[in-house]
Design brief:
By secondary structure, the chain is mainly α. 51% of the residues lie in helices and 4% in strands. Strand 1 and strand 2 form a beta hairpin.
């Protein structure tokens, strides 16, 4: 399986959700406790552009990765960044590259694209919750994240790590709920 297929599906799902964001929702809280919806979209846009730069073999630029280059139209800029990263990942020979992922190191393209996939599936759910949309990610994509996660190092959760402490969910819960708990989110947010 080509990781880019899962990434494309997650990215397109996030684009559909972001397209529904209205200006009055931008200051809404998100499951990412430290970010409003606007701040989450800035993060997502910056990371899309950073991953696109990496795929195009450009040096990592902290201003791009952190979203400092994102202007006021966060919804429009997110959509442009999503199109850009999709095109960059689809380029011939991209899977032969190593990606310099700001703050994390250098990875084979398939690993870095996998990181992007997990991030955008998860952040798509964050956007859905912030705008009150009942949308859930596809169960097979959630199962793919859980399978990938079995190989992650122990330090992947907790303070200073990519994910918050894991949230316990019943073992017979849906793949979506199990993935969310695995990635440190309560499937019942904001409750």
């Amino acid at each position: 399986m080509d990781i880019r297929d899962n990434d494309t599906r997650a990215l397109r799902w996030s684009q559909r959700l972001v397209a529904r964001v209205t200006g009055d929702q931008l200051d809404s809280p998100t499951p990412c406790a430290e970010w409003t919806l606007r701040e989450l979209l800035v993060h997502m846009t910056g990371n899309n552009n950073g991953f696109a730069d990496a795929a195009e073999e450009q040096p990592a630029d902290a201003d791009v990765w952190t979203g400092r280059t994102v202007g006021d139209d966060v919804v429009g800029e997110y959509q442009k960044s999503a199109q850009r990263v999709h095109a960059a990942f689809a380029a011939d020979g991209v899977l032969d590259h190593r990606f310099d992922v700001h703050g994390f190191g250098s990875y084979p393209a398939s690993v870095a694209i996998g990181m992007h996939f997990v991030d955008y599936l998860t952040h798509g759910w964050d956007v859905a919750r912030a705008i009150g949309a009942p949308d859930e990610p596809d169960a097979d994509l959630c199962a793919a994240v859980l399978e990938m996660g079995r190989r992650w190092p122990q330090g992947s959760w907790g303070p200073g790590a990519p994910f918050s402490e894991q949230v316990t969910v019943p073992p017979d819960a849906s793949p979506q709920a199990r993935m969310l708990g695995f990635l440190g989110r309560s499937p019942h947010w904001p409750h």
